[in-house]
Amino acid sequence: MSSTGEGRPWISHLTLYFIYLVLITTVGPLQFGFHLAELNAPQDVITCAKDSISAASASRLPQCIPMNLGQFGLVQAILDLGGVFGALVAGPASSKYGRLPVMRLTNVVFLLGALLETLAPSIFVLALGRFVSGIGAGAAIVVVPVYIAGISPPQDRGLFGAFTQVMINVGILVTQVLGYFLSHGQYWRVIFAAAGGIALLQLLGLLGAVESPQWRADNGDPAGAERSLRRIRGPMANIEEEIQSWALKDGADEEEESLLQPSPNPSQDSIRASLEGKHVGVFQVLREPHYRPAIIAVAGVMVAQQFCGINGIVMYGVALLSELLGAGSGLLAIAVSAANLIMTILCAPLADRLGRKVCLLLSIAGMGLNAFLLAISIIFSIPVLSMIAAILFVASFAVGLGPVPFILASELVEKEAVGATQSWALVANWMATFIVAQFFPILNEWMGKGRIFFLFTALAAGFFAFVVWCVPESKGRKDADEVWGRQRRVD
Length: 491
Prior knowledge:
The chain has 491 residues and is mainly alpha-helical. It has helices at residues 16-25, 27-37, 43-46, 69-97, 99-118, 123-151, 157-161, 163-182, 188-205, 213-218, 222-233, 240-249, 266-276, 284-287, 292-307, 310-325, 328-347, 350-354, 356-379, 383-399, 405-412, 418-447, 452-470, 480-484. Helix 4 (69-97) runs antiparallel to helix 5 (99-118).
């Protein structure tokens, strides 16, 4: 069992209330994973692709909604456009009004999105529901990690920060299981309704949550911050060191505050940021050559996360492999999601042990190799090879491309530019996800079944070279200057 710096078992200093807060708040990322994969298993049923399915229905709602591949790709991808909007709005809103109100409002958005999807009579309403759900998903993956960082013991922030990725994978697994059992008749609507049920449960669960002590301290409420922290840590815990750290930070770690804050005076603000730890604006950071290598590195890795093909399996795996595996494609989707979850948990310590860059390279190489094997297995109809390659494909993703991109920004740039760099990385990630979601089914049909994974292999080779040349190792480096091997700035 791992230990804290004081030699105690890591769980001994955690209260049940803290565990409750982590679990109830990370239901937000779970919903992101749920919506990401909710169309995978029931695709043929929703789109009337099966011969036995007709749009006609005795009820007021159609049994299915006729769609071609381009239309279905748009419905799938529009979640990501909502995600961009939600992510950009949630950062400043949570800085101004608090993490907790934004998380609660996010669940109202999730409820509205689930309602629209469940009762959708047409492509437009289904797409609108997906867009609204995307707003909630984008907000959740911005606000929840910041909230968890604000309530976690300093020595355990890395550990509990990993819960975001873990719960995303839980959400993917849940929706794949539901899809396997409910992909017939109009029961696919129950899958969407389940998302609304999850949102309602989290909304009720958040009624018992407290605001982040860190946010309260940074917003002029030290007494309220101390009360919240005391409730989280327990009556006997020593919280003096954490309270003192708030005064030292003075809000400098609130990364997302710069998300839509372009600087009115770039040159003067840059100097002030360098000297006083002020935040660099989201547009200003692009104009500063000093930060450009880091932005290229972080955004490039975020694009690699999607362009190496993970969402080709997560979003379209069942339809892709249905001709080869038949009904077994649904079971494979569940197995793949379970493998992704298990490997994410098992591989969590690797980035600290092997290094960020090594994990990325191993991950990209593994995904490229198994994408090649997937293409071969589909083209030549080798079911066993397709199952093995699909599982190893997502396992490789969990080694590096899954967790590492989300921690790079805080290590490759100085603290005044972390928020702006994270913003561009997030936009790059969502837009890359949109491209894959929109064009994967079209390209797969145009190139011939399975051959698109040759494209992912080629892209993986390119991103492998990109990481070798453009992404420095940040493990064990104390600041961005040491990461990039440059002299500390004095201007």
